[in-house]
Amino acid sequence: xxxxxxxxxDDDADIRLALELLLQDAGFSTRNAASPAAVxxxxxxxxxxxxxxxxxFSRDTTSGGEGLALLPELVRAQIPVMVLTAxxxxxxxxxxxxxxxxxxxxxxxxxxxxxxxxxQQQQLxxxxxxxxxxxxxxxxxxxxxxxxxxxxxxxxxxxxxxAATNAxxxxxxxxGTGKSVLARRIHQLSNRSQAPLVAVNxxxxxxxxxxxxxxxxxKGAFTDAxxxxxxxxxxxxxxxxxxxxxxxxxxVLQPKLLRVLENGExxxxxxxxxxxxxxxxxxxxxxxxxxxxxxxQFRQDLLYRLNTFVLELPPLRQRPDDIAPLAQxxxxxxxxxxxxxxxxxxxxARRQLQAYHxxxxxxxxxxxxxxxxxxxxxxxxxxxxxxxxxQLKQQPAGLHSDAPLDLNLQQMEQRLIMQALQQSEQQxxxxxxxxxxxxxxxxRRLEKLQINLEQI
Length: 456
Fold this sequence. Notes:
Blueprint: E1 5-9, H1 13-25, E2 29-33, H2 36-45, E3 50-54, H3 65-76, E4 81-86, H4 90-98, E5 103-107, H5 111-139, H6 150-163, E6 169-172, H7 179-189, E7 197-201, H8 210-215, E8 216-217, E9 229-230, H9 232-235, E10 240-244, H10 254-263, E11 265-267, E12 274-276, E13 280-285, H11 289-294, H12 300-306, E14 309-312, H13 323-337, E15 344-345, H14 347-355, H15 361-375, E16 380-381, H16 389-393, H17 409-423, H18 428-435, H19 439-449
């Protein structure tokens, strides 16, 4: 993540140097500007997170006119500005505040006070960015939610019924079936739709950062906690929290999540104050949680809190009536993304899609059509680039195979990972997408299962 970027705008080189040494030593990134024109050039090159602005750039000038003239332009660009002014220029600072400056500080400044104000703005900037991301997420329609087949229409009826409640929901389904899309659909139909939907990939969170990620931390709560961080529960306040891959949550961490679900209480790391969470929980997994409970890897009382209502997403091979409309949706989506004229799927291409068994489900369909759109040279797609006929006839021995299940869960997981690695030609990113995992989560599984890529 890039460091907090501060533009130091002052004609006095000594002042700029003093600020630069102080702020860089505190972990911030700084740039310099010695004139209003230099400020404009620096902002045009890269918009800073904060500007420390002197109002007087010309030697022996005390009117503040140069800085005040620059302020409206910076405020329109939504850049926070902290004005630096001499003791005798408090009226100028007040005038700057009226023009939109965020804060002012007098020269000579107190180092600790300056750093405290900068860190305060850093946290405000972080919260603003998170709010924009969450707002964009919740306003993004669940366009991938297509329910023309009978199984999906039945599921849609259940979704309509349960979305309006505050009941916790557990979504089950194979990798790539669209569990995150269903979570967004539930949120948008709920009475919490105007509040954030926050997604967390449980498999991607290291055990040591679990509490900090979910509950947040204060500055100094642990070695690398240089500034406070808001947790996912607080980010989702009043809205919905989507815990993806809940079956990957280590057993040692499950009591920490259970406590929040039981009484809504948690503590921010480094704080003794108990916070109350107001979130609607949506969880998802492709694992058999009952088997994990029997193996001692998942708590039964946690499952009871998660599965107030269970929704099961059917694999794509069981909803053939949705394949064509989903395919057309992805063609249009990727045509817009790559600025290409939307192509038409020919009857031949549609027959190919209908004949395939889709082990990777909707995610595989999406990747396949993205590639087809990129390679399309005309206004139609005749060949969607399915695997060879030999591969089509060889049904993968995954969870949906008719072969007898004489493997334990770890062996099955290892087999699925091996298949994904072979299908993706050992490209970890592509294999992770096929498995519905993050690249980091797949790497952890490879290490856990002692899978050596050189032996595949």
